[in-house]
Design brief:
The protein has 223 residues and is of the alpha+beta class. The protein is built from 8 helices and 4 strands, in the order βαβαββαααααα.
């Protein structure tokens, strides 16, 4: 049994939860809040970031969401998520990096700072200018996703891949924090609504932070 150290609104934790569920890998979750990370957690991952996957029986500790995903791709044959030709696999990895880095830095990270960390940790009001800028940048990313979906069945090609999981994880956190305006993005909204109906995604929709509540549409499959 794997133990997944995660935080509910960490998009990288969500990506690995989706991957492990799609691959039917059993795991138990251990919550690790980023602002109160324990010494034990820093011993597991000196970077102090979730997710971390531990198998104590094998004395195995995996850190960094992309490294964890690659490990499971190499060791679990069920439901491959970095698949196809070499060109296809490069495209999957390119898009994973785009969502993990660009979308996160432009959209998810500012929303987490303004609507979560400032409220729960810093006890400060959010900066409305930063929120507007994050939502503006989100439109640009959704425009690109609209184009991808217009030209492909899934984001990276003909089948669901780690790129779809990475994108859905980022969008789900941004959507929880009220940072996604779906107007004008029917293609991506349709893709995301279909993704929300997958068994791997449903546990994410039912989770709530102690204080921060999502918009009413968040858990609706067509919302």
């Amino acid at each position: 049994m794997f133990h997944l150290y995660q935080f509910p609104l960490c998009p990288f934790s969500r990506k690995i939860r989706l991957l492990m569920s799609e691959k039917n890998i059993a795991y138990e979750m251990v919550r690790e809040d980023p602002w109160t990370a324990s010494d034990m957690f820093f011993n597991l991952n000196p970077a102090g970031r979730t997710p971390v996957v531990v198998d104590a029986r094998e004395e195995l500790v995996l850190a960094d969401s992309r490294a964890i995903a690659e490990y499971f791709e190499e060791t679990v044959q069920h439901a491959p998520m970095i698949n196809g030709t070499a060109v296809n696999r490069v495209e999957i990895r390119r898009l994973v990096a785009l969502f993990d880095e660009n979308f996160y830095n432009d959209v998810t990270a500012p929303l987490l700072m303004e609507r979560m960390k400032k409220r729960l940790v810093l006890r400060q009001p959010p900066d409305s200018r930063m929120l507007r800028e994050a939502m503006k940048l989100a439109h640009g990313h959704l425009d690109y996703m609209d184009w991808l979906i217009d030209n492909r069945p899934w984001l990276a090609g003909s089948s669901m891949s780690l790129a779809d999981l990475a994108a859905a994880a980022q969008i789900s956190v941004a959507d929880y924090l009220g940072g996604i305006d779906w107007e004008g993005h029917e293609q991506t909204h349709g893709w995301y609504s279909a993704f929300k109906s997958r068994p791997s995604f449903r546990p994410l929709l039912s989770e709530r932070m102690d204080v921060i509540q999502p918009p009413a549409h968040y858990a609706k499959l067509d919302g």
